[in-house]
Specification:
8-stranded mixed sheet, about 260 residues, Immunoglobulin-like, mainly beta, 5-stranded antiparallel sheet
């Protein structure tokens, strides 16, 4: 059963927080190494998806700060991401510093990207550039969009895993998010209506890698993490997408998640 916490505020007194780290995005096509994140395994009962990532198990995860790769654009506040897994589920938390929260969209697969939102991008373990990916974006009110996307702008909202769990909470310094996504939901995207549209079979990564993705957990996944800061329209990202303007959807620049196995 999908869950959400709609505990948020839209109006608050501005508070001064340190900005996110900045680094100029490399020119498109530069290439270079991709980040790799080791993902520890924890017991399923160690985390409660309530939007408050305060369980001791989260301390096992590497803290991943998101970076503003466009220092000429509005300054963004800090975001910390952590990733764990239970063998059956991918667990992701975000801790977002923010002085004013914007969350105006209140339905699943609504335009949550227009709000403050955190984003999880996943793709099959393709060497080189994947052809398709999954995107989960969550606003401070606990509403989320989960879609299949293909470059540059084809989106299919019919990927709506029933067992995903999502929660967010407003906190004194901003807001926090927790997500639990069953690994089985990733290859199941190939079953949704319209999956075979547009892309030829050679570009249907989730179908081509289905046997690999059915492992629980898979050995590796391509991934990126991002956050949109409103109303500044600033973007922070884990792996540099190598774009001249804020944009996270560059498949070839997705990093790697490497999962602990028993």
């Amino acid at each position: 059963m999908a869950t959400s916490c709609r505990n948020y505020h839209k109006d608050s007194q501005p508070v001064s927080y340190p900005p996110a780290a900045t680094k100029t995005s490399a020119p498109r096509g530069t290439g270079g190494p991709l980040p790799e994140l080791h993902v520890p395994r924890i017991p399923a009962a160690a985390i409660t998806i309530d939007g408050i990532p305060d369980e001791p198990a989260w301390r096992q995860a590497t803290v991943v700060p998101l970076t503003n790769y466009w220092p000429g654009h509005p300054v963004a506040q800090r975001t910390l991401v952590r990733v764990l897994h239970t063998g059956d589920c991918l667990l992701v938390s975000f801790v977002c510093e923010d002085d004013v929260l914007i969350a105006t969209h209140n339905a699943r697969d609504d335009h949550t990207w227009r709000d403050d939102c955190t984003e999880i991008f996943l793709a099959a373990p393709v060497e080189g550039a994947p052809h398709e990916g999954l995107n989960i974006e969550i606003n401070p009110a606990g509403y989320w969009a989960d879609v299949l996307f293909r470059y540059p702008n084809w989106i299919n909202p019919d990927w709506s895993p029933v067992d995903i769990r999502v929660a967010s909470r407003a906190t004194a310094p901003g807001w926090t998010v927790e997500v639990a996504l069953p690994f089985a939901a990733i290859p199941d995207v190939s079953k949704v209506s319209g999956y075979g549209m547009i892309a030829g079979s050679s570009r249907q990564d989730f179908r081509l890698y289905e046997s690999t993705l059915r492992a629980s957990p898979p050995v590796r996944l391509r991934a990126n993490f991002a956050r949109w800061h409103r109303p500044e329209n600033a973007l922070t990202v884990w792996s540099d997408p190598q774009r001249p303007r804020p944009h996270a959807l560059e498949f070839d620049r997705f990093g790697w998640l490497v999962f602990d196995t028993p």
